[in-house]
Predict the 3D structure of the following.
Amino acid sequence: MLPDEPRPPTDRTPGPGGGLAHCYRHPGQETGIGCSRCGRPICPQCMVSASVGFHCPECVQGANREVRQATTRFGGQLTADGALVTKALIGVNLVVFVLAAYVLKPWLSEDLSLFSVGPQITGFPYGVAAGLDQWYRLLTATFLHVEPWHIATNMVMLWVIGPPLEAALGRVRFLAVYLVSGLAGSAFAFLLAGGFMNSLGASGAIFGLLGATVVMYKRTRMPLGPVVALLVFNLIVTFSVSGIDWRAHLGGLIAGTLTAIGLMYAPPARRLPVQTVTVAAMAGLVLAMVLVGMARYGG
């Protein structure tokens, strides 16, 4: 500070008439205390305790802006529990399973499954093919299981691959990958099914997380062998066991992989806009598949 520059008042700077200085935010309040950062006089209402002396509210706000918030590898918020969303998803799946398989059967599973019948079969559309008021099935079917082996297989897979991916992406981005993958699996199955289909399960979302895990391993230069082997094994089971809806698995896998590429390879300087556009584009793709399916099969 140059000698001829005015000095900010401090706790030792007298006010007008030689008395105590007046708080810069409350002019009617005299005070003998000044901000230890900028030196402006502050009254007890404005004092913010610091490691050395007191700070004024403006200096505290400025310091908070200067502190860069820690994030996950791909821009998510760091949290104490990096697997909270994974646990919540498992909990929701288990609750729906108990209700559909043992408490409210069979009507709940019939009402929540990815069921669709085109007018070329019954003369009128039913389920997803009936229109907008039935499109909820695209989502509810991804939380629906009625066989113990089915729920057990999917939830074990979710517990194995979910927490590492959630810890890397953060809760919001991880949930976005899960939901987009599940919806894309349902939409792809509806697009290819033809006049009749009935499908359920979280497998489309699980395959989306598998695809995202492969992208994460590639992005972070981790050995790809184990996760690729796991993916190949699940694909072999998908296409070799009867009764498995391969369309939902494949649709979820493609959507999860593409979404993860957009989330994980987004430039740091434009990370949030790129990631937002990626998720929005995938949601738009889901809508486009459903609309094309409706037009194709006369719904």
